[in-house]
Amino acid sequence: MGKDYYEVVIQPNRSWLYVDWKGLLHYRDLLWLLVRRDFVSKYKQTILGPLWFFLQPFLTALIFALVFARGIKIPTDGLPPFLFYFCGLVPWGYFSQCLLATSQSLSANAHILGKVYFPRLVIPLSIVISNVAAMVIQLVTFLSFYFYFKFFTPASSLIQPNEFLLLLPFLFLQAAMLSLGFGLWIAALTVKYRDFQHLVGFLTQLWMYATPIIYPLSVVPERLRWLAVLNPMAVIVEGFRYGFFGVGFLDVGYWAVSFGMTCFFLVSGVLVFNRVERTFVDTI
Question: Is 118 a member of any domain?
Fold first, then answer.
């Protein structure tokens, strides 16, 4: 009985504009293996395990409600503060986790990069995919509180879901694209400048406060609102809230700008990562 043989040719990229998409498809089994590894290892040997996926946004939303809503009296567009914050933390949590892990993906996997060949883009892609599971758990948790407030509290009249809910998968996709793009940029820079490993966490915290998570976009003066929406995550978070509650600031033009910026950062991130990929094994 005959056997099928195939030949794998490993050669340096001729141009940093060249991306080996065929190679990524060929290593899809490795991609799913890394996805499983990332998910299992995240809370391995912990007492609570996957419950941390629920506890992190729950406790954060609770603290935000006590500090920012009751303490500082920041408005929440008339919505229950806990639900307002939880809703913003779901897309932000997915984005920030993907960004932090992707930006450190090369240094965290340096022990295998010099031993075997595979398209290096597989590693950051696996991180973005593996975090989908955590995002789904957090979304289900949010929905449980959402339905409780909608059907069993006096705040039900304030919660007006609409047809924009159908676009939520695209908002999550945009968050994934944005985190991957920025993560690839930082991962490529970290190979040579290790300072970015320490800087990325701090910058992510600042980014959160520049995103309407603890405050609605409506509190930003209209003349300055265009500056706020230069942050692509601002449009994503506002769109997420608008779909579930029917309140918030939503503009098709701003979303188009946000999506265009996301595509720019993704494409440029892939190209820069592809350029550094040829030499980072020697410098990592």
Answer: yes
pLDDT at 18 over 90: no
- Cα–Cα distances (Å) from 255 to 180, 208, 264, 268, in that order, read 19, 19, 14, 20
Within-domain flag for 12: no
Q: For 1, how many CA atoms within 13 A lie in the half-sphere containing its CB?
A: 0
| Residues in Cβ contact with 129 at an 8 Å cutoff, skipping those fewer than 6 apart | 31, 35
What is residue 9's predicted lDDT score, i.e. its pLDDT? 57
pLDDT value of position 277: 74
Q: Domain span at residue 244?
A: 21-155+173-283
Long-range contacts at 54-62 (CB < 8 A, ≥ 24 apart):
54/137, 54/138, 54/141, 56/93, 56/138, 57/86, 57/89, 57/90, 57/93, 57/138, 57/141, 57/142, 58/86, 58/141, 60/85, 60/89, 61/85, 61/86, 61/89
Give the C-alpha separation, 274 to 184, whole Å: 9
Number of structural domains (the chain) is: 1
Q: Is 246 a domain residue?
A: yes
Do residues 141 and 101 make contact, with C-beta atoms less than 8 angstroms apart? no
Give this prediction's pTM.
0.88
**Sign of torsion, CA 69 74 80 86?**
negative
Please tell me the distance from the alpha carbon of residue 26 to that of residue 30, in angstroms, as a whole number: 9
Q: How far apart are CA 43 and CA 60, in angstroms?
A: 19
Domain assignment present for 89: yes
Residues contacting residue 226 through CB under 8 Å, at least 6 positions apart: 254
The single-letter DSSP state of residue 2 is -
What pLDDT, on the 0 to 100 scale, is given for residue 133?
87
